[in-house]
Amino acid sequence: MKILLRSKASKLSLVVGAIFGLSNGGVWAADGTVMITGSIVGSTCKVNGGTPDFTVALDKVSDTSLKSAGSVAGRKSFLFNLTGCAASTATDKKKIAVFFERGDTVNSAGRLSLSSGATATNVDVALFKQGAIAPLVIGATDTVDFVDVDTNGAAQIAYDAAYYATAKAGAGTVVTNVKYTLVYP
Fold first, then answer.
1. Are 73 and 128 contacting, i.e. CB atoms less than 8 angstroms apart?
2. Residue 73: which pLDDT band, with cuts at 50, 70 and 90?
3. What is the model's pLDDT at position 91?
4. Strand, coil or helix: what is 119?
């Protein structure tokens, strides 16, 4: 008789275990669809008279002006002079912005690391909205500020570039670059 009870208990344990085992599986939710839309516009704006690649030459600064992490020196303004854009009208205000892309030269802080040919040490290059105190985080979408395109199809977008010390800077050359894209809302 004891053997029969064990057998029934074993069968009951097996059934209960199977039920609980099946109920511990993943929970499934309803399937859905993510719709992605966008718009590709014709490249209507000319940058700086048709020369989209350009150089910002920072002025020479003393390494003593970059004596500790977070020191900024040699700030220099540069301008995206846009012409030939779709012109604004009284009822249709056009806007445009510059988006600096996160690429190989952009470090985790969102600043520009020096290229392999540069010889300065402990220095990044930071970009700023013109006159701003805090540097941009390159590649972050919240750094995009749209400006109005005028009725002649022109707009100007100004930025600053500066040396940014990551520690006490060492003398040498500074070379880096960043890619950008003109964006429309």
1. no
2. very high
3. 93
4. coil
**How far apart, in whole angstroms, are the C-alpha atoms of residue 77 and residue 128?**
9
User: What token pair was written down for 98?
Assistant: 């510059």
How is residue 141 annotated by DSSP?
A: G
Cβ–Cβ contacts within 10 Å for residue 152, how many? Answer: 11
Give the strand pairing for 72-83 and 155-170. Answer: antiparallel
E runs forming strands in the chain: 46-47, 72-83, 95-100, 121-129, 147-148, 155-170, 180-183
Q: Phi and psi for 161 in degrees, rounded to 5?
A: -125, 150
Domain ranges of the chain: 46-183
Consecutive H or E run containing 8: helix 2-23
Q: What is the pLDDT of residue 150?
A: 95
Amino acid at 168: K
| Angle at CA of residue 85, ends 185 and 130, nearest 5° | 70
Here the tokens at position 64 are 């003593």
More confident position, 31 or 108: 108
CATH for 46-183 is: 2.60.40.1090
